[in-house]
Structure formats: structure tokens, C-alpha cells
Specification:
The structure is a homodimer. With about 170 residues, chain A is mainly alpha-helical. Chain A has 2 domains: about 80 residues, Arc Repressor Mutant, subunit A (Orthogonal Bundle), CATH 1.10.10.10; about 70 residues. In chain A, about 65% of the residues lie in helices and about 10% in strands. The first copy, chain A, contains 7 helices and 3 strands, in the order H-H-H-E-E-H-E-H-H-H. The first copy, chain A, has a two-stranded antiparallel ribbon. In chain A, a hairpin with an 8-residue loop joins strand 1 and strand 2. In chain A, helix 1 packs across helix 4 and helix 6 packs antiparallel against helix 7. Chain A is elongated, with a radius of gyration of 21 Å. Chain A binds a DNA duplex (28 and 28 nucleotides) through helix 2 and helix 3.
DNA sequence: GAAGTCATGTAAACGGTTACATGATTTT
DNA sequence: AAAATCATGTAACCGTTTACATGACTTC
């Protein structure tokens, strides 16, 4: 079967434990969104497709009066997820507007410092969120490895921005 | 004016010196594509739009019989680029399928090593390309700062993958 | 002569975001 | 009573990729 990576995010989340589309969105926003975001506009239609394909199964489980559909992985869904995990990852993409502006900064050299600054602040903000997740969530297993990656790579990014901002101030680039 | 970031990639490239759509694509593939890719399907229509908006100007400059349109920035285009450079960068996005698979690897623990391995090989490949660009292109000014960022961040990524692969082999995660 | 490169462009499809709509429950 | 949260979904739009089409010149 050929599914979009975002479909596998859903399968992966349901592998941990059954949950609603709303729960999936909340969990994604708390975890993988830093390297794979997902919106309601994807999650709900994708859940329908996965259900039709027999990879997940939804059951009405109203919580305190609110209608609610909790999905769980089927055996076929577990197999599909395992197959995907065994395949070589293909997608490595970055969109970094700060690097883009820095690259073109010869056309307006006095903007370079602000671009590096914004990049530093972005990574600092992510770092704060990840540290929050580390202390409140106390993740284990492979998610904790990925979280450590996030924290350490952000630390590296912040350090690079500080170092390069310093070099700019010294006039090393012009 | 509200343009897509990819439009600014075009403006930025033309700020260095006038060139054709084909040249822009070649240059992008050799430089910013690691953090901002662009395809012909974007470049040619975007050049038309920018031309209509008066930000670039095209002139027929056939090279050895082949028809060819060389674009250059207008004064308005230079202003537009400078305005954009002065604005705070907004887009910071990463899509990393290896981290995604690693995150879900509790569902198939023996796949984790291969995902980290693939990530390491990806960054090694990029590193080789960037080092090639460094030796053959000898970039200066801000592009060289960005290139150094690319090289050093890739080195960090490769080192992280090696370290974490080692920890996995030692059975530190399960 | 074939393959590769220079060069321009379009159309379809895809993945994803944003905004909107709805409505119940819970918290302030 | 109002604001926030839980919960589900759709429609429009946007940016991007991929595939295709065309054709001339250059290199092997």
C-alpha cells in the first residue's frame, strides 16, 4: 500500500495507544511536529481513508456527553506500520527563511545580523518547549532519543548563531 | 507587495547578476536548495509574474542560436528584495522521515539502527556536495557563511548519528 | 548518429494549511 | 455569562513537484 508519510504519523500514534483525531493532533503538536507537522485538515480525512482501507478501526466512545470516535490499529495497520518502519527514509527537507536571507544578505549587509538573531530566537524558543516536554513528559524509549536529538541540535544551532553573530560584529564578513 | 519566498529566491539570484530561468534553476540547485528548493514549474511562471509586476525585466539574449531570455532586477525589484531582507524571517520547517521512523521505532525496535544509518548517509552525502562546492566554487561574503553553516551542521548531524548508533548497539535504548 | 545539455514552458496531481462551521462541555 | 477546551469535519486555496512537450545546439 502507498500511503503519505502523514498517514504513517497517524498509524504510529495509534500504535502507542488508541485515541481520537483530536488526541492525535494534540499529541503530534506535543511531539513530532518539530520535524513532521500535521493539521486537522489532514488528520480527519486521512482517518476516514485509513478506516476504509482497514488499517484502523473507529469506535464511538463519547466522553462525558461529547461525541467522540476513538481509533485503534487493526492487525493490518500494525503490519503496514512495521513495513514502513523497515523501509529506508526518503524525505529530508528543510525550509529556513533565515538562512535564505543570510545567503542573499550581500544585497543588504546590515540585515544579516537580524536574520541570524531571529534564527537564534527561534531555536531558543523550540529549545524551551523541548525542555518543558522533557521535564513534564519524561519520555522513554525511542521518543526520548529523538527528544534528545531535538534538544542537542537546537543547542548547537543557538551556539552557531551566537558565534556567527559575534563574527559579524567583528566585521569578519562584509 | 506580497510575494512567495520562492519569488524572493529569484530576486536574490538576479541581484547577484542577470540570468535566465534555466540559470536560476542551476544556481539554486548548486546553493540554496539545501534549505530552499525550487523547480522549473515555479521558476518560469514566477518570472512572468515578477515581470508583469515590474520587479524584473527580461531581454531576449540568444546564446549560440538557442533562444534565451535573460532577466535582470529593476530598481523596484531591488527595493522589494531589500524590504524582504529587512523583515523578520518566519519560516522554519523541517521534514525528516528518519527522525519520524526513529520516533515510532518502539513499534519495531530492530528498524531504529537502519533509520539512523540512513540519516547519517544522507548528511554525509550532503556534506560531500557542500565540500565540493567549497573547493570548486570558492564562495565569499554571506554565501560563504551559509556554506560553512551547512558544512558544520552536517558534521554535527553525522557525529550525532554515529554516537547514537553506538548507544543503540550497546543496548542503551530498548 | 546518439546522448547530453541548454532552454522554456504547461498541466495535472499532490500534500498541506487556513479558515470556517458547528456544537457540547468545562472552567473561570 | 463568557471564555476556553473538546471534538469533528469541510472547502478553498496555495505552493510545489512531476511529468510531459518541444526544439536547438554540442559533445562523444
Amino acid at each position: 500500500m502507498e500511503l503519505s508519510p502523514t498517514a504513517y504519523v497517524i498509524l504510529g500514534m495509534l500504535a502507542v495507544h488508541p485515541m481520537s483525531g483530536y488526541d492525535i493532533k494534540t499529541t503530534v503538536d506535543y511531539s513530532v511536529r518539530f520535524f513532521w507537522a500535521a493539521s486537522y485538515g489532514q488528520i480527519y480525512p486521512e482517518l476516514s481513508r485509513l478506516s476504509e482501507a482497514g488499517l484502523v478501526e473507529g469506535a464511538a466512545e463519547p466522553a462525558s456527553g461529547r461525541r467522540r470516535t476513538v481509533y485503534r490499529l487493526t492487525t493490518a495497520g500494525q503490519d503496514e506500520l512495521a513495513d514502513w518502519l523497515a523501509q529506508e527514509p526518503q524525505v529530508f527537507e528543510t525550509r529556513d527563511e533565515a538562512l535564505l536571507k543570510l545567503f542573499f544578505a550581500d544585497a543588504a549587509p546590515d540585515t544579516a545580523a537580524a536574520s541570524i538573531d531571529a534564527k537564534r530566537r527561534y531555536h531558543e524558543a523550540v529549545l524551551a518547549q523541548l525542555r518543558e516536554i522533557e521535564t513534564t513528559g519524561k519520555p522513554e524509549g525511542h521518543p526520548s532519543v529523538v527528544l534528545r536529538f531535538g534538544i542537542e541540535s537546537c543547542e548547537w544551532m543557538v551556539a552557531w548563531c551566537e558565534r556567527e553573530a559575534g563574527r559579524l560584529r567583528e566585521g569578519a564578513v562584509r
